[in-house]
Amino acid sequence: MSTFAFLFKLTRYRIGLYLLNAIAWSLIYLAPIAPGWITKQFFDTLSGNAVYGFSVGALIALLIASALARVTMILFGFVTDVNFRFRVGSLLRRNMLSRILKEPGAKAIPCSPGEAISNFRDDVDQVEETVSWSVDSFGMTIFAAVSFYILYGISATMTLWVFLPLVLVVTIAQASTTLLQKFRAASREATSQVTGAISEMFSSVQSIQIASAEERVIARFRQLNDNRRQAMLKDKLLTQTLDSVFSNAVNIGTGFILLLAAQSMRDGSFTVGDFALFVYYLTFVTQFIQNFGKFLTYFKQSTVAKERLASLVQGAEETILTESHPLYLRGELPAPGMETDGAQGDSRGGTAARQAERNGAPSTAKEGPQAKGTAGANAVSGGPAAERAAGGPAVRPVGRHSSTSGKQGGIPLLEVDGLTYRYPETGRGIERISLRVPAGSFTVITGRIGSGKTTLVRTLLGLLPKDEGDIRWNGETIAKPGDFFVPPHSAYTPQVPRLYSDTLKNNILLGLEEDEARLEAAVYAAVLEPDIAALQHGMDTVIGPRGVKLSGGQAQRTAAARMFVREAELLVFDDLSSALDVDTERKLWERLYEHRPATCLVISHRKTALAHADTIIVLKDGRVEAEGTLEQLLESSEELRHLWNREDEG
């Protein structure tokens, strides 16, 4: 899609507001026509060459009235322009974010978060600026045409000298297209690298300190900033040089006009009023030429911005960026697409059913009342019996029963056949992996570093797009795993927890309506009670950006509590216990294993998890090396024995 077509589609988003904005600014730019004509009449009246019989007082009154009218129109123009610009920028950002959220979670953006922020901020601002200036160029062009007609009727030669610089401006702007785009692309890339480095440094403070790499990191950061300084200087220098050329071209033309005017006034063919009109219009024609040159510069730079925005949507049609959608800037926001359990009943069943229908799978929530009753019975029956010897509270299960039980010979809750994913950069990944996860089972995936464990669960959950293979839930094929494997079907805790600068409670709930019983159950299952008791404000403690106020183990268990509170049927853990001490890990697995209705799929190499496993799947080089119980694999699998013995050595 060409830059012109791209910008035109954006103007059509709110075409009524755009046209209103265009009319307002056209009137603003046409407004100087009246004061110029009044000024001519004023001086012609004083010199005795007046054509119309206006008095001096009347002309002054008209001049003041035209000035007030222009000020009023400028105020109205700013209101319409700000509203339109805001909507254009918001639409672009909304469409980009929507596309990113539809991408597989592990490949949502093709760059660092810092670079993506630069796209959302700088490139959208550039497009927004260009669209806004299109209105100015339209109004200025109308003014130029009208003023050209008026001035040409007075003196054709002088009028040509007034507008000659415009030809020079357009020629220079066209000739500098390649350099403009090259320097703008370089400056944007340099800015993205700096913002990306800032993001990475603040997210890796502990790693930098452990490696004693502070000086090297700072030196690298200085180098990136120096590269950005050079790129920005080139970009700004070229832009300012073009502005200077445009201004000087106008000034040279003005000099010729003054020389010609003096000669014409000497022979009487040019009145004082004519000269006043030329001088008055000359200011605005000069403005027009400079601003038209600026608009051409912005237009060229917006080509770079469009290409960078298109790269963020990773090969999707560029028309996605300009699709019309409501922004909900006024009135009530729409209800969230995913409803959650409230204290008075389960509203997730209907949502789960709708979601299952969209993904071609039956809804396990269709037996919602029965399942809810079962869960409630379990919670009640676990009342006195659930009181732990260590003083834990009576809690209800952190998951929910599936409608079928693979342990009793039914259809497995989750089946995977021939699942394959290869990373485009290396060609490595997972190859034709098949597994069965019975309902209510505790399945552990283990293997050496780089064996494909994380890639497997990411592909299974739709966070990476599978190349081959089938995924079935209760016997039904899942066409879009990324849409299906969300609560209440499944919940996932990644290797690196994603926490936010908010309270601990809000990080756990993450938008869910608070249910005290569910929250307590999740906190208990994640072994977080002693940590919360030690925090100054308990659950209301603000944990800082990325949970910086928490230790690694606390951050992992906070993410686990977030997963538990969603009461999903399938709980997926990616190396949750890596940041936990042995005692805390033991408590976590015991609490989860002791009284759980949920099915667990766990990535771990730790003995505590392996000992609790109903089934262990051993991966090696992206393939299933062995599968069975711990006792079976310790006898038959050299790979598992290696992992088990290495844990002993550790």
TrEMBL record:
Parts of the chain that traverse the membrane: 15-38, 50-79, 158-180, 237-262, 268-289
Domain of life: Bacteria
Record field: compositional bias (Low complexity): 382-394
Major place of residence: membrane
Domain ABC transmembrane type-1: 30-301
Intracellular or extracellular location(s): Cell membrane
Pfam families with a match to the protein in the record: ABC_membrane, ABC_tran
Disordered as annotated region, ranges: 331-411
GO molecular function: ABC-type transporter activity; ATP binding; ATP hydrolysis activity
A single Gene Ontology CC term: plasma membrane
UniProt keyword list: ATP-binding, Membrane, Nucleotide-binding, Transmembrane, Transmembrane helix
InterPro entries (UniProt xref): AAA+_ATPase, ABC1_TM_dom, ABC1_TM_sf, ABC_transporter-like_ATP-bd, P-loop_NTPase, Type_1_exporter
Transmembrane is among the record's keywords: yes
Topology within the bilayer: Multi-pass membrane protein
Domain annotation ABC transporter: ranges: 414-646
Protein name according to UniProt: ABC transporter ATP-binding protein
